[in-house]
Amino acid sequence: MPEVMQKMIYSYEGDMNNAILNSILYAMEHKMTELGERPPYIKKINSVLIECCQNLIHHSDQHPANNYSFYPSVTIYHTDDGYAIHTRNLLQNQKVEKLRHYIDKINGMSKQELKEYFQTVLTNGQISSHGGGGLGLLNIIRKSKELHLDYEFEPANEDEMFFYLSFTV
Amino acid sequence: MKPLLINPTDETPQVVLDPENNRFEFVGNSYPENSTKFYSPILNWLKEFIDGTPKQELIVDFNFDYFNTSSAKYILEILRLIQDHQDKENTCLVRWFYFEDDTDMLEAGEDYQMTITVPFEIIERADTF
Fold it and tell me: Measured between CB atoms, does A118 come within 8 Å of chain B?
C-alpha cells in the first residue's frame, strides 16, 4: 500500500481570538503560496479557517487556567488530497448530543441539500448575541472535499467533553 | 443626511454610505468577532436613510475578499433594506464583485441574488488577489 503523504504545516494551541486568527491566515497564505497553490484555493482554505477559529472563539468552554491540554487547538496538515484541518475544543456535556445530532444530519446531505439548507438557515435563522447564525459548520462542510465532517467526543472531566473535528478541503 | 464612513481593518470592510456623492460600498474583509456590534450602526444608518429619503437612486457595491457566516446574515439584512427602498419605487441596483476564479464568492453572490428582486449584477474582477 502506498504511504499517504501527510505533513503538518501549522499547529496552534492556546487561547483563540481574532488577532491569533489573523496571524494563522497570514502564515497559511505564505505557506500555501510557497507550496504553489493557486490564489482561489488559498482563499478557500483561509475562509474555512476563519469559520473554524471563530467557532473555537465562540463555542469553547472555559479551560482551567494553565492547563494547556484544555486549550482550543487547530492543526493543519498538507496531504495528497488537500489540506486536512483538525480542531479541538472543550464543550459542556449538555451541548454534546445536540451537536452530534446536527453533524450527523448534515453529514448525510448531498451538495444540493446542503445548499438549500444553508439558504434556509441564512434567510430564516436567528442571529445570536455575538452575531453567529448557526451557519459556521454548514459553510465548512460545503467547502470540504467529501462533504463530510469527522468528529469525536472524549470525556475531559465530569462536566465537559473534548470535541475533535476534522475534515479535508 | 450625514455620510457613514468606516475605515477598513484586517477583519472589517471599508464602509462608505454617502448619499451626497451617491456612493454606497463595502470593500475588503468582514469577519469581526462580533458581527452584531459592527453591523448594527450600519443597519441603523440605512434604516434612517430609507425612512427619511423618499426619492434617491441607490447603487450599492459589495466588494468582499472574505466574509464569515455571521457577516453573511448581516449582508442579507442590508440587501433586505435595499429591497425596502426599491419597494418605495426607487431605482436600486446591487453590484456584487468577485475575483476571477473565486467560485465561492461567485456562488455567494448567486445565492443572494435569489433572495431579493432588486436588479443584481455579479461582476468579475480581473485583477489578481
Answer: yes
So what's the architecture of A6-168 in CATH? Answer: 2-Layer Sandwich (3.30)
Closest CA of chain A from B109, distance in Å? 12
Inform me whether the C-beta atom of residue A39 falls under 8 Å from chain B C-beta atoms.
Answer: yes
Is pLDDT at A7 greater than 60 in this prediction? yes
- Out of A122, A125, A129, name the one closest to residue B36 (CB): A129
**Range with lowest mean pLDDT among A69-83, A129-143, B95-109:** A129-143
ipTM of the complex: 0.90
Q: Does B103 touch chain A (CB under 8 A)?
A: yes
Cα Rg of chain A, angstroms: 16
Q: Per-residue pLDDT averaged across B24-34, rounded? A: 96
Residue ranges covered by each domain of chain A: 6-168
Q: Which residue has the cell 463595502?
A: B26
∠ CA A140-B94-B6, rounded to 5°: 75
| Domain ranges for chain B | 30-47+58-129
| Confidence label for B20 from pLDDT (cuts 50, 70 and 90) | very high
Share above pLDDT 70 across residues of chain A, in percent, rounded to a whole number: 91
pLDDT at B54: 80
Whether residue B66 and residue A136 make contact (CB cut-off 8 A), yes or no, is no
Among A93, A28, A14, A25, residue whose Cα is nearest residue A57: A14
CB B49 within 8 A of CB B28: no
Q: Is A40 on the interface with B (CB under 8 A)?
A: yes
